[in-house]
Amino acid sequence: MLMERAIIHINVADFAVAVERVLDRRLDGRPVIIAPQGAARATVYDMSEEAFQAGVRKQMPLGRALRRCRDAKVLPPRSHRYAQAMDRMLRSALPSSPLIEPGDRDGHLFVDVTGSSRLLGPPVDVAWRLGRRILEDLNLTPIWSLATSKLVAKTASRLVKPLGEYIVDPGDEAAFLAPLPLFLLPGIERGDLARLNDFNISRVFQANQLTADQMQALFGDRGHFIRDRLQGIDPSPVRPVGQSPPRVVQIKEFGNDTNDRFRMERCLYRLVEAAGRKLRQQALAARRIGMVIEHTDGVRRIRQTAAKPATADDFALFSHARRVLDLAWTRRTRLRRITLICDRLIDPPAQRPLFVAERRRAEKQNHLMASIDRIRHRFGTDALVVGRTLAA
After folding, report:
1. Out of 3.65.10.10, 1.10.150.20, 3.90.230.10, 3.60.15.10, which CATH number does the structure's domain 177-230 have?
2. Do residues 6 and 146 make contact, with C-beta atoms less than 8 angstroms apart?
3. What is the pLDDT of residue 133?
């Protein structure tokens, strides 16, 4: 008989702002926005709850954010501070379990305490002590939740943000999720929300009324994955401390070294298609696109860029990848090999665009990608090709 898993999710809400407030108590209680200052196209990196209530959102242009929250204090992002705080959070959690999966400087930790009751006591006590330890060590007050999977634990944390705790007992996962809006579930993408919204489905219990065949017709292969998510089924493990995070890598070695720009972009799009397909199959999105190019004379160049928001869409990935190629390919020497790397993988963002025009464009794009995936799954990868790849 398998032992019920016990997964704790720790989340310090508005992590960057929380760290800044520990260092400067004058920021307490006032709206704060973390964003690069002086940049022409600066966007919001993080914001306090006060700024959020005023309408500020992550990745929003700074000018628009300040129009919505005129009295906000703007601070530049200081990544080294957030990385140090995450390291201290990790050290605080280490006595509880060797299975700890931290986020990327975002105040999130998954801690697997399955089977540790005889040594550490009931999981709820472990979670409570861990929250207290982080408060004492870092002066940060975390949200915590306890459930049998990462999916349910993270969803529970979202319900009690910015402060609180939530316990979902084993066997109660489906009942807990049933009344919730779909956008709260990690892994449900914007395209999924748009497709279900076409049928006036916005809650988990409404989507659960669809049969397996109906889900297959709507989402193709993703239908089984989405049905599991709606029921709270998530077998994904908590990675051990120090284990390398997952990433998607695609490599193209040229038979004849080349410096033909058009050929390079055709091959790059093929790599992007393969990477995007793998990301969507795993229900993940990439927050960073990297590239390694190797010249005939042995010189290697490595460049990368952030994807904001995270994406698994071929067209968005290609836009980022082409920009990275421009950064890396600064010599006229022929290329021998190109490696595309998609990493910092997360559940796809489900927040819908704010404006109607943006929303319609995003929904159209998501419908297109879903249709392409279904056709290729049924008839093969080469059943549908993009024109720029024909000569690749």
Report:
1. 1.10.150.20
2. yes
3. 93
> For residue 392, what pLDDT is reported?
47
DSSP 349: P
Q: Which residue has the tokens 């929303």?
A: 359
Superfamily (CATH H level) for 248-389: DNA polymerase, Y-family, little finger domain (3.30.1490.100)
The reported pLDDT for the residue numbered 113 is: 93
pTM: 0.69
User: Helix or strand or coil: residue 83?
Assistant: helix
Q: Which amino acid is at 231?
A: Q
**What mean pLDDT is predicted for residues 242-259?**
82
Tokens of 300: 């290697």
Contact between 342 and 289 under an 8 Å Cβ cutoff? The reply is: yes
Preceding peptide of 309 cis, ω within 30°: yes
Determine the length of the chain.
Answer: 392
Strand-strand pairing, 165-167 and 143-147: parallel
- The more confidently predicted of residues 284 and 109 is 109
Q: Which of 200-209, 262-271, 275-284 has the lowest mean pLDDT?
A: 275-284
**Domain 23-78 belongs in CATH node 3.40.1170.60:** yes
CA dihedral 103, 104, 107, 112 (to 10 degrees): 20
Provide the 10 A C-beta neighbour count for residue 217: 12
- Nearest-CA neighbor of 151 among 236, 247, 246? 236
pLDDT digits (tens, 9 = 90+) for 163-184: 899 999 999 999 999 999 999 9
pLDDT at residue number 358: 65
